[in-house]
Amino acid sequence: xxxxxxxxxxxxxxxxxxxxxxxxxxxxxxxxxxxxxxxxxxxxxxxxxxxxxxxxxxxxxxxxxxxxxxxxxxxxxxxxxxxxxxxxxxxxxxxxxxxxxxxxxxxxxxxxxxxxxxxxxxxxxxxxxxxxxxxxxxxxxxxxxxxxxxxxxxxxxxxxxxxxxxxxxxxxxxxxxxxxxxxxxxxxxxxxxxxxxxxxxxxxxxxxxxxxxxxxxxxxxxxxxxxxxxxxxxxxxxxxxxxxxxxxxxxxxxxxxxxxxxxxxxxxxxxxxxxxxxxxxxxxxxxxxxxxxxxxxxxxxxxxxxxxxxxxxxxxxxxxxxxxxxxxxxxxxxxxxxxxxxxxxxxxxxxxxxxxxxxxxxxxxxxxxxxxxxxxxxxxxxxxxxxxxxxxxxxxxxxxxxxxxxxxxxxxxxxxxxxxxxxxxxxxxxxxxxxxxxxxxxxxxxxxxxxxxxxxxxxxxxxxxxxxxxxxxxxxxxxxxxxxxxxxxxxxxxxxxxxxxxxxxxxxxxxxxxxxxxxxxxxxxxxxxxxxxxxxxxxxxxxxxxxxxxxxxxxxxxxxxxxxxxxxxxxxxxxxxxxxxxxxxxxxxx
Length: 590
Hints:
- The chain is of the alpha/beta class and 590 residues long.
- Helix content is 31%, strand content 22%.
- The protein has helices at residues 32-35, 88-99, 154-173, 186-196, 202-216, 223-226, 261-274, 323-328, 334-345, 360-367, 412-420, 436-445, 459-467, 536-545, 549-568, 574-589, and strands at 44-48, 58-62, 114-116, 119-127, 131-137, 143-148, 231-236, 244-247, 251-255, 285-289, 295-299, 310-314, 350-354, 377-381, 393-397, 426-429, 449-455, 483-492, 495-509, 512-522, 527-530.
């Protein structure tokens, strides 16, 4: 029996503008928001001479990011700019050179201050050629997420505000579309800008279009973050406090964005409006689903949050995590994933357990790729996160009107009862928290294959949560649950990573719940070990198909080899992976 060959055409990489040099980390003017204050900022950075130099010996460079050509970079063979001398005349000459570009803005340059240099760890584009991000490290070795956007002049700011007001009238009040569905046609906006200032260049017009799209249909100063696929969570804890993010590579990072009190109150109201939710002094806290699919928890004023308005936005990947992705980042290895593959394919019910940000939903989505392609699937979630390549899949989500009267609300319990009437073969519940868990276990006991996630630290904690208030699942019902997968967010020298901590088979005798730990993560060697020679799940699968131990092992190994080949050839496209999984299933069934 041959494993289907894996091949896929290489996707051409889009050419983005060259990122600024590592030293170009300071703006002469602030971005759009601070531009309203008519401030022109400048900065001198200090840099060590080298390893052989004294700790107090520095060369000073004036870091410049040009007003107009932030993305027009010199060729690689161009000469490096010589360090600026500490001499007063040299600095004044450099200031005069800078001011040549700003003679018409009537900006005043404040007194220059010397600041410690930040080492650039990584830079990448967010929306080329307008915005990019720098991950920088300061002298205390703290990492900061710094957003860089084009600068605008005072005259351009006036044009921007006038065009913005015009668009509000033209696109909101005169359009039958809801505001969340509005789009900004660049050519339409270009004509509007030219009508206010015909002399503005095309290059500067493109920058103003960027800000108009960012502020009108996007998320304002948070828009670059919302476009960053590396960000999972965005947190604002209150006014005049830097925003924090959870980065897929660097974990928790401080950012260079801050809201003042008035600005923050306006912003949270805008977020609520985007989600079609009512946020006010009488309803100061809401949970919302944003148009991008992100989930937001928002508070207004200082009624429930002592530091004022706050919000947390949880983003989700545009492309779902696949089994190959989880293996590539080390959350699972191919052997564990092959075991889960065989279990899912043979209708074994699974609950994935873990703490916050442990990747439970990503794992559930990835393992759902192993569901047979024609099986009927119903998924139930608060916010749409599950993304499957299956056609015979009905995705349902809850509805919370936010009004005290609950007649119009649709919760998970109602959706789960409705799903059972549709004769699904697989039921996927985003997360069980209340009475819907009892219905989920009833579905297991009536022959439905179910997958769900649960917030808990381990197997015993999960069982305690499920069997006590407010969930109260009878212990005898646990006999229908086959596997409980424990997943966690681990840290090593400040960097976070996710690992499957254990895979456990559930065993119930007369209400006594026990479990066998089949696989366990070795945290010292960062490897997965098999604890049990025999598996009840595998024995049951072998008995159903009439396999002996040799055929069972072959079915595990052929799936393991397929997964390893996915990783080796860097195949992570969900449709391609689904295709190869189905082809292997057909091959094994012949």
